[in-house]
Specification:
The chain is built from eleven helices and 26 strands. The chain has helices at 4-19, 41-47, 70-76, 107-110, 246-259, 276-281, 303-306, 326-335, 368-371, 408-412, 431-440, and strands at 51-62, 83-97, 102-105, 113-119, 125-134, 139-143, 165-170, 178-189, 200-203, 215-218, 223-230, 241-245, 265-266, 269-273, 293-298, 314-318, 321-322, 341-348, 351-358, 360-361, 380-382, 398-403, 419-423, 426-427, 445-451, 454-460. A hairpin with a 2-residue loop joins strand 23 (419-423) and strand 24.
Length: 461
């Protein structure tokens, strides 16, 4: 005879499955007493055809510290021939548009890929092309030939609650399609250093290597997240997995499909979290929730400056959506499109007011050497520290994004990852500063750069 505990457990699970929707109420399996057993099989049978396996081939350069040193190469007369090795990776993806063949996955799954193959549940294998990828959110969209495909309907990740049951579907360890279940164990996880923009769903549904890009679905069979990472000292599942909320992934995917990239907005703000001491200093009532982002700096001439936002203001909401902390504000602004108008609710001197701000596009990297035909800088790609970067507002300089190994700059010792601080003793903070200095000074360029915490000078002739 069953114990009362067993009966209660079976009843609770049955109620859970029935609550998922009338379509799943007909459960064929029964126990020894002819009572229906709880099962997620009907929902999973509907969802799994939209989850695909992704395999890639690519090539990456093999980095050798000696061969990357221009002085070493010149001394021994070594040619500039980077060594490469072939790479392979396995991951997962979710069909989000059956008519056009769009598949949502992680950017790291297809990184450096020269060939992408997608295997469907019915064992068809199709070649895919990249529509766009955004490493900052780890979201990518690829496309396969349309025909007899099934898409997974999207849910609303903003309605998830801690304790909601979820199912992870993917291709762990290359074993083939696998399903695991669990609950949402936390929401709004950030500050993990996994991606540039973080607002993760945390779940204890097993997510292992190869699950990346797979689906996190609710009990209605709706896509609520894209599995992306695990927290584990040994690389295996320990019950802490992270998924990108589908609302964020959809916002990114729409821009990738339309533009092939993400046109991120910027306001020109620097913010920090509120602490009890800061709340007291800014006259927030004792016992009030510490929610919002404290403005610490407003860049001159930025959209925020033009809208009248000042240091010391506390941003409580964006377009009516509450702002939890500095990280959540950064995520919201990073997902806005350039050209949009947004309403910020700010707290100043104990009074709440609304401010309308026109979002501008964040500065993108600039190929200065090519644009201005300056042979001294040919082959060098300079960038700008975007508002979403953790370094935004903390450094003054221009990042070196890429250096052609055959360029003058590479021979002089400039490397990708260097931070250019000044040219000929003149500070440079933006690509425009760099252009102005190089157009005026036609002789050798004295670069002052920061590298791995150290400073050095480089002369480019």
């Amino acid at each position: 005879m069953k114990s009362n505990y067993s009966r209660l457990l079976s009843g609770a699970l049955l109620a859970l499955c029935l609550a998922a929707g009338g379509a799943y109420a007909a459960l064929p399996a029964v126990d020894s007493q002819n009572q229906p057993l709880p099962t997620l099989a009907p929902m999973i049978e509907q969802a799994t055809p939209a989850v695909v396996n992704i395999s890639t081939r690519g090539r990456v350069a093999v980095q050798n510290p000696l061969l990357s040193d221009p002085f070493f190469r010149r001394f021994f007369g070594l040619p500039n021939m980077p060594l490469e090795r072939e790479t392979q990776s396995l991951g997962s993806g979710v069909i989000i548009d059956a008519e056009r063949g769009y598949v949502l996955t992680n950017a790291h799954v297809i990184a450096n890929a020269t060939e992408i193959s997608v295997t469907l549940r019915d064992r068809r294998t199709l070649k895919a092309k990249v529509i766009g990828a955004d490493p900052e959110t780890d979201v990518a969209v690829i496309q396969i030939p349309a025909g007899n495909l099934k898409a997974l309907p999207a849910g609303d990740s903003s309605r998830l609650r801690v304790g909601d049951f979820v199912v992870a579907i993917g291709n762990p360890f290359g074993l083939g399609q696998t399903v695991t279940s669990g609950v949402v164990s936390a929401l709004g996880r950030s500050g993990l250093g996994i991606e540039g923009y973080e607002d993760f769903i945390q779940t204890d549904a097993s997510i292992n290597p190869g699950n990346s890009g797979g689906a996190l679905v609710n009990l209605r069979g709706e896509l609520v997240g894209i599995n992306t990472a695990i927290l584990s000292p040994a690389g295996g599942n320990v019950g802490i997995g992270f998924a990108i909320p589908i609302n964020m992934a959809q916002s990114i995917s729409r821009q990738l499909i339309e533009f092939g990239k993400v046109k991120r907005g910027r306001l020109g703000l620097q913010v920090q979290d509120l602490t009890p001491d800061l709340a007291q200093a800014f006259n927030i009532a004792p016992g009030a929730a510490l929610q919002g982002a404290l403005v610490t700096q407003v860049l001159k001439g930025s959209p925020a400056d033009k809208a009248g936002i000042k240091p010391g203001d506390i941003v409580n909401a964006v377009n009516g959506q509450p702002v939890r902390d500095a990280g959540s504000l950064r995520n919201v602004i990073g997902l806005l499109r350039a050209g949009e108008k947004v309403r910020l609710d700010i707290l100043r001197d104990g009074k709440t007011r609304g401010v309308e701000v026109l979002v501008k596009e964040a500065e993108q990297e600039s190929r200065v050497g090519e644009q201005h035909a300056d042979p001294r800088l040919a082959g060098v790609v300079f960038g700008a520290v975007e508002e979403g970067s953790p370094l935004y507002g903390k450094i003054e300089g221009i990042p070196v994004m890429d250096v052609d190994p055959n360029s003058r700059a590479a021979q002089a010792g400039l490397r990708p990852g260097d931070l250019l601080v000044s040219i000929n003793h003149k500070p440079v903070r933006t690509p425009d500063d760099l252009v102005n200095v190089t157009q005026k000074d036609k002789g050798p360029l004295l670069f002052n750069v920061r590298r791995d915490g150290a400073a050095l000078f480089i002369v480019i002739r």
